[in-house]
Amino acid sequence: MQRSRRLGLTEVISGGILWGASGTFAQAVFSRYQVPTLWLTGVRLLLAGLLLLLWYAAGHGRAVWALWRQPKMVGQLLLFSLLGMVPSQLTYFLAIAYGNAPTATVLQFLGPLFIIIYLALAHRTWPRRIDLLSIGIALLGTYLLVTNGHLTSLALAPRALFWGLLAGVSSASYTLLPRRLLAAFDARLVVGWAMLVGSLPFGGILVTTRLPQINGTVIGGIAFIVIGGTMLAYLLYLKSLESLTPSTTGMLSAFEPLTATVLAVTLLGTPITGAEIVGGLCIIATTLLQALPEKVTPAAE
């Protein structure tokens, strides 16, 4: 049992590192090689979706088509793909393109904040005190990240902030939408088809776009984003859930923005200030607070 837990810890940390590194690779191909954002989003969805479906089909054969035999589930899949999968991938890459990988990754961590607000409105209940504390800390972190501590000026480009906040909203919808699908089908099947369907709107862009620079570095970066930052990261995260609780995996997912920040600063020379570091830590802290076991969190009065 102890070995299994150690293995799970290694898997979830490795997955977070790969996810964070993929953001840095995306920043590099956007800024240094002018790879179009929409094109890379479509390629990632298409290739990662195909890989996940091939992975599932290798062990289950024709069962890879099972989801399409249930019309009600097909509607759920289309909803998840077009309102969850595509926006979460596209807004994250746009936030990186207009800003940088550390900021985009941290703003994406605002997802739990939007989930809290949605659930409070949907159930018409006042958030728990721990939720209100999370909201307050997240807002403080966002303020520091966006203004660098100066109330009268923005340290972050407005478009980077806009897409970063949408990435947070999209990550919340990505979490909430596929629940019924994941209860009925293997996650590889659900996410693989959602990615493949989500790549269809990018078909014209994939065919007609001429890349300004194609060399080994660009190809290697894109391959890492698809295989390492999507395929392997997803596999490691799934495997970690076999020996770890969701709260533990939620807390250790903080390795994603940590990795994106360290790599962007050291490899790409992305500047970062003390206020931005504190702001990012505040936002990450909201995820850690939400990962606390419910029995130790005070109930709302």
UniProtKB/TrEMBL annotation:
<keyword id="KW-0812">Transmembrane</keyword>
<dbReference type="InterPro" id="IPR050638">
    <property type="entry name" value="AA-Vitamin_Transporters"/>
</dbReference>
<feature type="transmembrane region" description="Helical">
    <location>
        <begin position="133"/>
        <end position="154"/>
    </location>
</feature>
<feature type="domain" description="EamA">
    <location>
        <begin position="160"/>
        <end position="289"/>
    </location>
</feature>
<feature type="transmembrane region" description="Helical">
    <location>
        <begin position="36"/>
        <end position="56"/>
    </location>
</feature>
<dbReference type="GO" id="GO:0005524">
    <property type="term" value="F:ATP binding"/>
</dbReference>
<feature type="transmembrane region" description="Helical">
    <location>
        <begin position="189"/>
        <end position="208"/>
    </location>
</feature>
<keyword id="KW-0472">Membrane</keyword>
<dbReference type="InterPro" id="IPR037185">
    <property type="entry name" value="EmrE-like"/>
</dbReference>
<keyword id="KW-0067">ATP-binding</keyword>
<feature type="transmembrane region" description="Helical">
    <location>
        <begin position="77"/>
        <end position="98"/>
    </location>
</feature>
<feature type="transmembrane region" description="Helical">
    <location>
        <begin position="214"/>
        <end position="237"/>
    </location>
</feature>
<dbReference type="Pfam" id="PF00892">
    <property type="entry name" value="EamA"/>
</dbReference>
<feature type="transmembrane region" description="Helical">
    <location>
        <begin position="12"/>
        <end position="30"/>
    </location>
</feature>
<keyword id="KW-1003">Cell membrane</keyword>
<feature type="transmembrane region" description="Helical">
    <location>
        <begin position="104"/>
        <end position="121"/>
    </location>
</feature>
<protein>
    <submittedName>
        <fullName>Peptide ABC transporter ATP-binding protein</fullName>
    </submittedName>
</protein>
<comment type="similarity">
    <text>Belongs to the EamA transporter family.</text>
</comment>
<feature type="domain" description="EamA">
    <location>
        <begin position="11"/>
        <end position="146"/>
    </location>
</feature>
<keyword id="KW-1133">Transmembrane helix</keyword>
<dbReference type="InterPro" id="IPR000620">
    <property type="entry name" value="EamA_dom"/>
</dbReference>
<feature type="transmembrane region" description="Helical">
    <location>
        <begin position="160"/>
        <end position="177"/>
    </location>
</feature>
<keyword id="KW-0547">Nucleotide-binding</keyword>
